[in-house]
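pasting for the record
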Amino acid sequence: MARQTKFVKNMLAIVVLVAILRGVGYYLETVIKRHACIKDSLQKSTKSLQNVNDILFAQTLDAVIPLPECRAGIGESVLSVIASSPESFDSRMAVRKALIAEGRVSEAVKSSVCLVFVLGLPTTEGKNASMIQEMVMKESQRYQDVIQGQFLDTNLNSTLKFLMSVKWVHSRASQAKFIFFGDDDLHVFYERLLVLLRKVKPENVVILQGKLAHVPKSVQQMFNLSYHQFCSSEAGLVLTKKATERIFQVSWNMTLIPFPDIFIGTIAQHYNWTVLDRDGFMGDIELKSDVCTVSHVITFRPRVIGKNNTIHSICATHPKDMVKKTEWFNATSACPEFDIPGLLRERKFNLSEVSLDEVEQILFGDRLKDAKRLAEKTTHLINNNRVSSNKTFVPCNYLTSSDQCGNKYYKKVLESSGMVINNYVYTPGGIWTPKECFPRWKVAIVFPYRDRAFHLPIIIRELTTMLQHQKLEFGFYVAEQANDLNFNRAMLMNVGFLEALNFSKWDCFIFHDVDHVPLSDYNYYGCSGMPRHFLSGADRWNYTILYSTLFGGMTGLTRSQVFQINGFPNVYWGWGGEDDEIRMRVKEAKLDITRAKGPTGYYNCIKHHHHSAPHMPERVHLLKHFKKRLHIDGLNNLQYRKPTITLSVLYTNISVDIQKLKVDVRP
């Protein structure tokens, strides 16, 4: 009996040992296969990279869809590059809304952060892949913030995705000082990040990140790495512009390790770069009620999120340190840019004479007296702060000191002056902000103006209605020439541009003839697709345009684009020529002009009741030699007498005495 028991025990031991050996064998086989798979995938990734070499490093970089332009202003300091997958539409939308929400209460975030997403091609097959790709292309057209490379969106192609974004930074976002790289499930407090980055010199080669991690031994052996630490990107990664440029330069002489954080760490080790470790980059943490308000937290990814919530929506709507004077607003989402409800395909209006008083009554109704009282009070406060002088002066140089430009007192006065009119918050001077959604764009409409009292009330009435339908934040600025010299439209555009920036950092500007009224609400006046010519035809030309390269009438440029072309020429005194030179300046800056098409871009002209400015005989000569003046004639040589600022109920009037400037226009 004892022998039988011993025999059974021995057999059981043998069975257990065999099972253990089989398990170990299976594990080793799995590991070997996994390593072989990684090697094979790496080879395929490298071949894929070589196949798209011409696409990744081409001048245009339009591998799959047209590449976006960075929308932030001339002084933007952070470019936020978010890695995403093609099907993660909801995550990208949540990231956009979070940034809009933070920018709504932080001027620094609004003006200093540019957001783009980078992704590859869908990994699904058949109809699903086609459907997802079509949706991505529509999303790109709508938001213009998507970079998509010609490679499958897999983990092993993450380095390709990173290099695609680095190339885009190098070619399309040269003004960014720092580049943040993160994932679409990571929440970022950009205002706190900006505060941190003020302590870092952007000219140094620096990597700023949350924590250092150790490279797994298997990966070290596979790629023969001597570097045992890498920059963990799970909590986000910040590079200086100089660091990204160096990565861009050396990447083609290195093995493409299919893990971007290890790839970056290897380069950092080789060049002995400074790597800063900051506790504010948190990574995965438990979601607590106060996590959004802990001042040292810069980025984090919650482990648990309630149903129907994203961390972006939670921290976009509740952080205490973002609470400011927003009692007028109850917005929780961004205003739409496409598929806006209530737009009129064909607007109906009367272009017969109407007074400013009548327009004020139409727009304000029984709140008109309150609006007038508020406008008078605000004008008084602003003009008391202005230094009265009749001497010609040089405006603040936004090109070199944008942080010091713009009258903070103006902005402080306007922030404390406002009233609710229907679904908009009205601020004196004709500034309107949506109340129930975060405006996607802040648009300044600038009218070069003199002796057009018949036209101004009509265009203000019609544009106010249309822009409210489009859910934009907008303001009207009338740049009025206050002398009898020949009319100088382009110089007034320069003055209107700079003076409007005293009131707010507008995202873009539309320079608008006072006698052209748009026929369709679908002629969207947001900042997408700029530089943009909004006119496709006018009634006086049988709804055509005079010539195909026409760039006058209604022209849109972003704030940074105006600076990029040095504003507008100051030498065109009289009718004609300035709009053609503006188009040439835009082309010289290698900016692509978009145009309204068909009935969407139709306008009706208000009949003139005045004598037009005389033709300028020198315009042909000036156009021929415009390149010689490009860098000496525009914003950088602009001088004018201190204007008289009046905040009326309907618009801000900038009455200015402009004089001829000395500009060498000889061939």
